[in-house]
Amino acid sequence: MPKGISERWMPLDPDPRSAAYPLMESFWPTALISLAYVVGVYSWMKIAAPKKKKAITNGHASNGNAVSKKEVAKVSSSSSYDTIKVLMVVYNIAMVFYSAFLVIEVLDLLRITGYGLGCVEFDPKDDPVQRRFIRVGYLFYFSKFLELLDTLFFLLRGKYDQVTFLHVFHHGAMPPSIWWGIKYAPGGIVYMFPLANSFVHVIMYTYYGMAALGLYRYLWWKKYLTVLQMVQFCIFIVHQGQVLTPFNWECRYPKVFPLAIVIYAVIFLVLFSNFYVQAYWRKRRLAKRVDELNGSTIANGKVMNHKKVE
Helix H segments across the chain? Predict the structure, then answer.
C-alpha cells in the first residue's frame, strides 16, 4: 500500500507527545487490565451468583415460610452494606465532577481553536493547545478504568442481574480501544467522543448518585438515560462517519479511528436498543395487556370460564 494511502488510514508512527503518560508506552498493560476485568467479573459471577441463589433457597424456614422483610432489611442495613453505600455516593459524585471537567475542557478548547462540526484535521504541532487536547484525551482514557468500579459495586451488592453482557462488553472494550487513538492520533475530529460521552456520564452518574442516596421518588426519568445513550451513538455515527464519505473524504485525519468509533457506535446502538425494548417497551406492553385482560375477563360478575367471581 502506498505511503500516502496508508497514512490516510493509519499513522505509521506513534505520536511522541503522548508517550510520557502512564500506560501509553505499550498496549499490553491496558489490554491485560481489560482482560483481567472480564475474567474477574465472570469468575465472580460463576462463584458468587450460585451461592446467592442457594442462600435465597435456604432462606425459607423449615416450615416453608419465606424470610421476613424485617430480616431482609436487617441484612441490608448491615455495616458493610452501609459502607458500600457511602463509597457509592462518594464515587458517583466524584465521577460527576470528573466528567463535567472533561466537558468544560473540550468546550473551552473548541472555543480557543474555533473547531466546528465539520472536518477537524490532525494537528501534529507541539504547542500548549495541542498538549491540552492530548491531556484531555488521556484523562478520558483514564476515566474508563475508573468506570470499572461500576461493576465492582454491582457485584459487592449482589446485583448480578445488572452485570449483563452489554455492561461487561461496554466497560471492557473501552480502555483498549481509546488507547490506540491517544497513542497514534490524539486530538482532531474525534474530540466529539470525549465531549458527548462525558456529557452523558454527567447525567448518568447524577442518577446513580441519587439512587445511592435513596432518592428513588425523583428518578422517574431512568429510561431516558438509555434514550440519551442511543442519541449519543447516533451523533457518533453521523459526526465521525462524515470523514468516510465523499463529502469529507479529503479530511486529513487517520480514518481508522472515526471508522472504529462508527463501528462501536453501531454495535452499542443495537445492544442498547435491544435493552430498551426488553426493559421498557415489552414490559409496558405486557402490563397494558394484563390490564386489558383484567378488565375484559370480568363482566357482570362472571369471568371468561363462566365461574362466579368470589
Answer: 3-9, 28-58, 69-76, 79-113, 128-146, 149-156, 165-184, 192-212, 222-241, 256-276, 282-296
pLDDT digits over 24-41, tens only?
A: 999 999 999 999 999 999
Q: Which three cell numbers stand for residue 213?
A: 442516596
Query: CA-CA distance, 55 to 53, in Å (whole number)?
Result: 5
With contact defined as beta carbons under 8 Å apart, do 6 and 123 qualify? no
Q: Using the 8-state DSSP alphabet, how is residue 118 labeled?
A: S
Phi/psi at 205 (5° precision)? -75, -25
- Measured CA distances, 92 to 130, 157, 166, 209 (Å): 30, 16, 20, 5
Question: Distance (Å, rounded) from C-alpha 104 to C-alpha 96?
Answer: 12
Cβ proximity of 241 and 273 under 8 Å: no
Cα 150 to Cα 169, 221, 265, 310: the distances in Å are: 13, 20, 21, 49
Which amino acid is present at 85?
K
Copy the grid coordinates of residue 54: 442457594
Please name the residue that has the C-alpha cell 462540526.
Answer: 117
For 13, the grid coordinates are 508512527
Do residues 191 and 109 make contact, with C-beta atoms less than 8 angstroms apart? yes
pLDDT in tens, 215-257: 989 999 988 999 999 999 999 999 999 999 998 899 989 999 9
3-state secondary structure of 299: strand
Q: Would residue 170 show up in a list of annotated catalytic residues for this protein? A: yes
User: Residue 110 and residue 117: Cα distance in Å, rounded?
Assistant: 10
Distance (Å, whole) CA 303 – CA 296:
9
- Give, in order, the Cα–Cα distances in Å from 180 to each of 28, 52, 165, 233, 270: 11, 39, 24, 20, 24
Residue 135: which of 285, 216, 226, 21 has the closest Cα? 21
Of 60, 170, 239, 306, catalytic: 170
C-alpha cell at 220: 422517574
